[in-house]
């Protein structure tokens, strides 16, 4: 019973067409549009000039936002790792009958609206939020302590959004480790900690790096946490794009900023793919 | 030594517990504050009332936003699953040239920043001189959810053995009958999972949707974004609580149903 060769292509064609027409073509069009001229009235003028890019790099204002975006993304990656590794290790090791329920709980934030999760921090960190309310009640402070509208609050929102991705990636990697390797290390005389450091930790690195990449990329593409939890100085690159496109309707410049962001991320993902293979990330996401 | 590990393990448990508390404290706060009758929507709690929920139910623009979100989410779920499930079958059931490349190509959009996706599709539609419409939201959400549906459906399909279909064929069933009697029932949980997932992503999405929505086509998150411009009102907490309840209970319920379903089938 030989299968017909065209069968998989028939099954694939709707998806391929959709992705090509609605994603590949529009994204390429953004790059093309970034060379166009903005016209003061009416339609933008098709052209091939680097004015929009020159504007971006003309003074330090825009590049500094790009740099602070990268800095915030790196800080978020680091904190996600710090907060995520131990819970992932806990899931890997635990023999608790509640493990499936606990795993579902980690996944739950995936299902809760991003905007709700972001603004929920106002109830915790705000002037009349939970923390200030308790501190005043306890008599530790008399005036509310300003915790919102700074980089720390933005990172809180980002962490809340991204931590489940990190935990899941690390867990999938840990779960794939052959447990007999750890047993072997221990029977050869290494302590629990040594076995972890020499065997488990190195073998979990693919998941760690996949989680880091995903968190970095997703941080760079979001504008809500800086908008809701940040102050005027905490804008990120996606906020710039949003403002140019929705606010001032400067499409060619908005396209140029989008292209710069896209180029940065493509370079990072490409490098990652060369050394680690992108499929590691897909493995974790399909667990959901 | 046993004792030392035990204390290390206790620390790990404690740390995990703290991460849970940190992750859920803001969400729990939203739900609790939604019942606070106080007009600023913040602590302290001054009683317990459904006042804000009642107020929400009288707000026709929010009801409209809910209707839009549900219609959009359902259409997205049906459309994405309709094109995603065949593609997932192609990847799992067949071997062909360029398979890995195409699989990566279809899933890679997860790595494209949503803000760029939002700009790209809007720019393209504008260039084609089409107005923003429900159709734009729909195709946008299909593009947004397709990679996730592909991942999830593929993961479920791996578990379905091809032998069942072959057995049906050998026993004389035609290709159509085999699909209807064997493949489809076996596929149902994967299809359901894909639909649910795309519904929830569509229902919750805000980053790209803000670029595509119009005043007539506001979804609930877009509506919340508009309300935020003023300040965080208790109404937003109540709306948040409703959203949390809806998007959390749907997958849990569906998981339960599909497990019951699977038990009855005994495969």
Sheet having the most strands of chain B: none
Q: What's the end-to-end separation of chain B, in Å? A: 46 Å
Mean pLDDT of chain A: 88
Return the structural class of chain A.
Answer: mainly alpha
Q: What share of residues are in beta strands of chain A?
A: under 5%
| Share of helix of chain A, binned | over 70%
Low-confidence parts of chain B lasting 5 or more residues at pLDDT below 50? none
* Helical run tally of chain A: 13
Report the radius of gyration of chain B as a whole number of Å. 23 Å
CATH homologous superfamily identity of chain B: MetI-like
Low confidence ranges of chain A:
none
Number of strands of chain A: 0
Count of domain modules of chain B: 1
Keywords, please?
heterodimer; A: 288 residues; mainly alpha; MetI-like fold; 75% helix; globular; B: 267 residues; 0% strand
Quick structural gist:
The complex is a heterodimer of chains A (288) and B (267). Chain A is mainly alpha-helical and 288 residues long.
Give a structural overview:
The complex is a heterodimer of chains A (288) and B (267). Chain A is mainly alpha-helical and 288 residues long. Chain A has one domain (58-287): MetI-like fold (Orthogonal Bundle). Helix content of chain A is 75%, strand content 0%. The two termini of chain A are 36 Å apart. The relative contact order of chain A is 0.13. The longest helix of chain B has 34 residues, at 60-93. Chain B has helices at residues 2-33, 51-57, 60-93, 99-107, 114-127, 134-157, 163-170, 175-204, 209-212, 220-228, 234-265. Chain B contains eleven helices and no strands. The mean pLDDT of chain B is 84. Chains A and B meet through helix 1, helix 3, helix 4, helix 5 and helix 9 of A and helix 1, helix 3, helix 4, helix 5 and helix 6 of B.
């Amino acid at each position: 019973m030989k299968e017909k060769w065209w069968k998989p292509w028939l099954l694939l064609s709707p998806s391929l067409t959709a992705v090509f027409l609605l994603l590949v073509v529009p994204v390429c069009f953004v790059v093309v549009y970034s060379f166009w001229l903005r016209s003061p009235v009416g339609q933008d003028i098709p052209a091939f000039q680097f004015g929009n890019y020159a504007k971006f790099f003309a003074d330090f204002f825009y590049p500094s936002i790009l740099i602070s975006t990268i800095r915030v993304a790196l800080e978020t990656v680091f904190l996600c790792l710090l907060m995520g590794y131990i819970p992932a290790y806990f899931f890997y090791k635990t023999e608790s009958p509640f493990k499936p329920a606990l795993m579902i709980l980690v996944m739950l934030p995936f299902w809760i609206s991003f905007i709700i999760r972001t603004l929920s921090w106002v109830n915790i960190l705000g002037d009349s939020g939970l923390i200030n309310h308790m501190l005043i009640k306890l008599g530790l402070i008399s005036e509310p302590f300003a915790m919102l509208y700074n980089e720390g609050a933005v990172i809180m929102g980002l962490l809340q959004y991204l931590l489940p991705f990190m935990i899941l990636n690390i867990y999938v990697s840990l779960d794939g480790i052959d447990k007999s390797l750890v047993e072997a290390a221990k029977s050869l005389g290494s302590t629990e900690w040594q076995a972890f450091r020499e065997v488990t930790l190195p073998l979990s690195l693919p998941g760690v790096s996949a989680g880091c990449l995903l968190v970095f990329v997703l941080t760079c593409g979001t504008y809500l946490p800086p908008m809701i939890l940040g102050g005027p100085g905490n804008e990120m690159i996606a906020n710039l794009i949003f403002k140019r496109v929705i606010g001032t309707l400067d499409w060619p410049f908005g396209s140029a900023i989008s292209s710069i962001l896209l180029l940065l991320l493509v370079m990072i993902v490409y490098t990652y793919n060369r050394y680690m293979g992108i499929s590691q990330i897909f493995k974790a996401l399909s667990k959901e | 030594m046993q004792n030392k590990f035990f204390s290390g393990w206790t620390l790990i448990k404690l740390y995990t517990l703290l991460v849970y508390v940190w992750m859920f404290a803001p969400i729990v706060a939203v739900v609790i504050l939604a019942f606070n009758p106080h007009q600023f929507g913040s602590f302290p709690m001054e009683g317990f009332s459904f006042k804000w929920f009642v107020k929400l139910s009288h707000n026709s623009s929010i009801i409209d936003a809910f209707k839009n979100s549900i219609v959009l989410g359902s259409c997205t779920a049906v459309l994405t699953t309709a094109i995603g499930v065949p593609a997932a079958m192609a990847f799992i059931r067949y071997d062909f040239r360029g398979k890995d490349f195409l699989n990566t190509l279809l899933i890679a959009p997860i790595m494209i920043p949503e803000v760029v996706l939002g700009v790209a599709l809007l720019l393209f539609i504008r260039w084609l001189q089409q107005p923003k419409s429900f159709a734009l939201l729909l195709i946008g959400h299909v593009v947004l959810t397709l990679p996730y549906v592909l991942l999830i459906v593929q993961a479920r399909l791996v578990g379905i053995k091809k032998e069942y279909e072959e057995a049906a064929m050998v026993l004389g069933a035609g290709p159509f009958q085999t699909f209807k009697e064997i493949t489809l029932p076996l596929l149902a949980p994967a299809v359901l999972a894909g639909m649910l997932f795309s519904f929830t992503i569509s229902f919750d999405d805000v980053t790209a949707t803000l670029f595509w929505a119009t005043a007539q086509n506001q979804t609930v998150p877009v509506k919340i974004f508009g309300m935020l411009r003023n300040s965080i009102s208790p109404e937003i907490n109540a709306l948040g609580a409703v959203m949390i309840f809806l998007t959390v209970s749907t997958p849990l319920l569906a998981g339960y149903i599909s497990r019951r379903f699977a038990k009855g089938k005994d495969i």
